[in-house]
């Protein structure tokens, strides 16, 4: 796939409906990109794809380096990331990063963005989904049991995407960031962060979106996939 | 592009917001498929792509064979169509075609379908959008002035797509069919039809959806693109 095109397997509404038993090997997702987010079978942890390496961030805050041929994913989003914008800047927290991105891409509210931020974090609050207790358990229930961790004084990287409002239900409208520490031992879905000193932001606008749907997957075929915008905001916002 | 993958330029919400001044030459759309639907600059008529040929169905019910290099489109959906299902059947009208498709693809409610139907029509009611009177005029207003034609005793072809509910706003959820007569002199967006004798239906399920967004298009960048599900149903249902 060309640089800075977004590839997605399945849709977020399927996770909301608990469709998380099946999916392709992560290796097949990596054919489409080296930078991204996702989850694992049974929503067991958060996925981060950074420089082509795949990590599973687990409910205890720890991280496992994944062998992509041995692991499947029911939902993932990646891009072959080639930043078109690069800034060293002061970014106070999540709202500051969001404002900076809007400033970097003033005409991109109806497009997608791929984002990376490297720096030292005074504090990072993350949550991690601990997995389904039974097949088809929905994401709202799974995330009701999420664990929250705070990492202090940690160097690391944020990987994320911004999606336009009109993809709500297919992906998460707005910003969606995961964090992983430089030592690859800690990480999760970002709730909030505080930086220490300047950080490096790289980003690119994306105007091509490729969606691959599960096939021969009864869970997906049977799912209602009604738009649950409030629910998605609650668990992914 | 592989067979039976759906390619789309821009989103239906952009047409709702009147974003129809710019777009690529139709020739560039044809690189992705030979079967599809769309519209033209300023929503001037309905597009049908049949066996790789592009026709503009105009507000007076007539049809123009388009030279794809000389014409641009602000919105189009195509696939490289290779039917996986084929039936000769009695199809009473639009609801009958819809029921037949559901029967042919019982596990496809969350996927896309590409559809073609060839036959003799006792009656075909079509509407055709006559174009914007000014830039950014929205589709609801444009379609308020649509013309409706009835063709009687005509041999012809239906080209269409079925889209899953969750793409509402990006495309039209549900079924969307255009008609063109065998003599390529009449056509439009189908409101209702009645057949005469058996018809030939070919169709394929599609599990890959490729979306290309307009770039460097101020109209698109400025548009609100709020979901107008009721409006889309009213003008495209």
TrEMBL record, chains A, B:
Query: What is the taxonomic lineage of the source species?
Result: Eukaryota, Fungi, Dikarya, Ascomycota, Pezizomycotina
Q: Which NCBIfam families match?
A: acetolac_decarb
Query: What species is this protein from?
Result: Thermothelomyces thermophilus (strain ATCC 42464 / BCRC 31852 / DSM 1799)
**Annotated pathway, please?**
Polyol metabolism; (R,R)-butane-2,3-diol biosynthesis; (R,R)-butane-2,3-diol from pyruvate: step 2/3
Name the domain of life: Eukaryota
Q: Name one GO biological process term.
A: acetoin biosynthetic process
Q: Give the protein's recorded name.
A: Alpha-acetolactate decarboxylase
- What GO MF terms are annotated? acetolactate decarboxylase activity
Q: What keywords does the record list, in alphabetical order?
A: Acetoin biosynthesis, Decarboxylase, Lyase
Q: Does the keyword Lyase apply?
A: yes
Family matches, as Pfam families: AAL_decarboxy
Task: Name the SUPFAM superfamilies on file.
Answer: AF0104/ALDC/Ptd012-like
Q: Which reaction does it catalyse?
A: (2S)-2-acetolactate + H(+) = (R)-acetoin + CO2
